[in-house]
Amino acid sequence: MNILLFLIPLSLLLVGVAAWIFAWAVRHGQFEDLDTPALDVLRDEPPAPPAPPPTGDEARGDAA
To answer: In this structure, what are the phi and psi dihedrals at residue 5, rounded to the nearest 5 degrees?
Structure first.
């Protein structure tokens, strides 16, 4: 039974910390846009084209 004297205040402390973190997240707008991040995964954008390899003077560093 003595362990309850430790566990009950500890659990109340953890609930208080969780409530504080949730309140902080709400105040800082963490829950404002819940739809866009989920839709970003579904966007089918083509990958950027690779850069062409350097040729001639560009490869040697003799640019005019």
So the answer is: -65, -20
Kindly give, in sequence order, each residue whose CB lies less than 8 Å from that of residue 63, ignoring residues fewer than 6 positions away.
Answer: 57
Contact between 6 and 12 under an 8 Å Cβ cutoff? The reply is no
Give 64 or 15, the one with higher predicted confidence: 15
Alpha-carbon distance of 40 to 33, in angstroms, equals 12
42 vs 33: CA distance, rounded Å = 16
Contact (CB, 8 A) for 57 and 63: yes
First CA to last CA distance, the chain: 85
Which distant-in-sequence residues (6+ apart) come within 8 Å of 64 by Cβ?
57
